């Protein structure tokens, strides 16, 4: 479809230091992104500007320097740590004679490599097509020609119009498929809500260690690596907490600075797990120099997806990189856990995290001692089925003395079904 230079494995990175803080990007993050995409960085070009140049984004002198570097290093692709317009990409490719990719295109490429499930692949394709559709505007000259030849004459539709139509049709098809997936996810969420099982969602900046922590808590083997966007597809597992009972833990895609809006929109179904969570575990790489900025960026994305009102427990991960590594629990003015310091890799502080989760979730628990006659064996069986029996003994008359701890919703449901009879069994 496109008469463009093909990408490759050897890349030159371009990073501009802007005077405006809101436009600034992190060069080290670009290197990590390039590494995650599987390309080898052969050179880095940096420059300082007050604002982007309209034609090339960088100055003409830097364009000449970039062109000679591409020729000298035999580079396959030039990657900018910024968002380029379609015209800027085209003008740069014409000058440097190789493929030019911006930050958004690089992130989309990584997502395309990482997607494993059918839903994930559809979401990535949708984001890529939406990004691609902007690249068709004022596109390459061959796209403006009318089709000709046997079997192609008649409609008078230019290649550009055909490509736009095909893109629209494909986007419409993917949206339809994702809507079906979204309905299926919604059914699963409703089933969990009916069972009153709390959901915990891991959120955080990419490469903060969410999947490693997920594996540590659930004894799973979800793919985890020291690279950006190792996880794309949401993974859910049930875990048992000593006091709070069963909970669902969800591992989600990591966030990143200036996350493309197309990606946020495409991954709406995935991020729904975050929006519907009862508690967010905000995982932070405490050894990262950009820690505060990363926290602000995650909070910004949570606001975008309307998940900023959900209760949060901060989890400061990778304390093994600090000296000394000190696992601990921080509490607010009311004595509730506010933050936990752990190392998911080394297993440090995990018991403290579980205790903090128990405290945060156990507020919804009720505890009672019931004295049940032998005729109430059906109710006793239900209490065991709900994992609500903590201890049991027998009275002098053969009655069951049962200590229970239940989710508040389960207790109210039992009261509604059993009525005053159940209240009569309460002996505490």
TrEMBL record:
The keyword Membrane does not apply. Pfam families: GTP-bdg_M (PF16360), GTP-bdg_N (PF13167), HflX_C (PF19275), MMR_HSR1 (PF01926). InterPro entries: EFG_III/V, G_HFLX_dom, GTP-bd, GTP-bd_M, GTPase_HflX, GTPase_HflX_N, GTPase_HflX_N_sf, HflX_C. It is found in: Cytoplasm. GTP binds at residues 204-211, 229-233, 251-254, 317-320, 343-345. PROSITE patterns: G_HFLX. GO terms for cellular component: cytoplasm. GO terms for molecular function: GTP binding; GTPase activity; guanosine tetraphosphate binding; metal ion binding; ribosome binding. Mg(2+) binds at residues 211, 231. Keywords: Cytoplasm, GTP-binding, Magnesium, Metal-binding, Nucleotide-binding. It comes from the Bacteria. Residues 198-365 form the Hflx-type G domain. Its cofactor is Mg(2+). GTPase that associates with the 50S ribosomal subunit and may have a role during protein synthesis or ribosome biogenesis. Belongs to the TRAFAC class OBG-HflX-like GTPase superfamily. HflX GTPase family. Monomer. Associates with the 50S ribosomal subunit. This is GTPase HflX. It comes from Oceanimonas doudoroffii.
